[in-house]
Amino acid sequence: MDIFGIYPMLKDLFGYFKWKEQDKLVEFNSPLDADVMQQLKKDDCELAWVKPIKLEKSIKSGGVIYYQEDRKKRIRYRLVNSENEVLVKRPQKNRA
After folding, report:
1. What pTM did the predictor assign?
2. 75 domain residue, yes or no
3. In the chain, pLDDT over 70 holds for what percent of residues?
4. Does 13 fall in a domain?
5. Which domain holds residue 75?
6. Residue 96, pLDDT score
7. Is 32 inside any structural domain?
């Protein structure tokens, strides 16, 4: 088998492992189950809704967009509320 016969197979295989990203509209403030919340607490992180205009600033200050994954469909959902705010995971602020 030559390299030209292997390329289409590898291309299809790579396409299979690539995840799609989509926005998912959520209508509630706490879209996570207890296990995820425990892990966030353990990692000393919090979740917050961030307006699109402030998203870049939030990411630069250590925030990460929180994704819900559907492993069967290979889709990562970015959670968005009705006001178009994005759910972001960020280090918890020290509370004195």
Report:
1. 0.66
2. yes
3. 67
4. no
5. 20-91
6. 44
7. yes
Backbone phi, psi, residue 48, to 5°: -150, 145
List of residues 6+ apart from 35 with CB closer than 8 A? none
pLDDT digits (tens, 9 = 90+) for 37-76: 676 777 788 888 899 999 999 999 989 998 888 888 889 9
How many other β-carbons are positioned within 10 Å of the β-carbon of residue 91?
A: 13
- 12 in any annotated domain: no
Q: What is the pLDDT of residue 10?
A: 62
Q: Check residue 48 and give its pLDDT.
A: 86
Alpha helices in 3-91 (DSSP H): 3-17, 34-42, 52-60
Helix, strand, coil abundance in the chain, percent, nearest 5: 35, 30, 35
Q: Is the dihedral of CA 68, 50, 63, 15 positive or negative?
A: positive
Six-digit token string for 57: 């600033």
Q: How many domains does the chain have?
A: 1
